[in-house]
Write a structure and sequence with these properties.
Strand order of the largest sheet: 3-2-6-9-10-5-4
Helix content: 10-25%
Order of helices and strands: HHEEEEEHEHEEEEEE
Number of strands: 12
Structural class: alpha+beta
Shape: globular
Largest sheet: 7 strands, antiparallel
Distance between the termini: 34 Å
Strand content: 35-45%
Oligomer: single chain
């Protein structure tokens, strides 16, 4: 089945205003990640919720970074990044990497990948990626990365909803 969208119709519509869009997006639930990279021997990172799977074969994911962040040009220059999905107990790391500290990694336990990118200790999961495509969209860049390694754990992920960090319920919902 083919789908055709008449671009002339779309171009006549005014886009939703930013405040309304942000309000709706706050109602979405997202895993809290810290995107890390290495540039010129120094680790860098930032908290981000704009992350998604793209393909299972080959394994690819995407992250979306605002071009105004200090991590954006470093991910672009290094050509690789790690997505660290924080665990419920890592709210402090989410806050730390959302800030503008000079040395975000001071006192933070991590290990380095073969390429030198930091993987935070105690995360629910991590994916090391090599950038295969960059797409500029509005104020952001979509970085598509091919996953070259990863690690999962039994830890429950930290989530973000309505402007705050939250825990995943451990209750199993049984379907009848």
């Amino acid at each position: 089945m083919n789908c055709h969208v008449d671009s002339t119709v779309l171009s006549r519509r005014a886009p939703m205003d930013g405040a309304s869009f942000r309000s709706i997006m706050r109602s979405m639930v997202a895993g809290v990640t810290v995107v890390t990279t290495e540039h010129e021997g120094s680790p860098h990172g930032m908290t981000a919720t704009a992350f998604s799977s793209v393909s299972a074969d080959p394994a690819m994911v995407l992250i979306v970074l605002n071009r105004s962040t200090r991590t954006h040009p470093l991910v672009m220059a290094s050509g690789h990044f790690v997505i660290n999905l924080l665990s419920e107990s890592q709210i402090g790391l989410g806050q730390r990497f959302a800030g503008k500290l000079d040395n975000q990694f001071d006192g933070v336990p991590y290990r380095l990948t073969e390429r030198g990118a930091p993987v935070l200790e105690g995360v629910a999961a991590s994916l090391e990626c090599e950038t295969v495509r960059e797409i500029d969209m509005g104020t952001h860049t979509i970085f598509v990365g091919q996953v070259v390694s990863g690690h999962g754990s039994d830890a429950l992920p930290l989530i973000y909803h309505e402007g705050s960090y939250k825990a995943v319920s451990t209750l199993d919902i049984l379907a009848e």
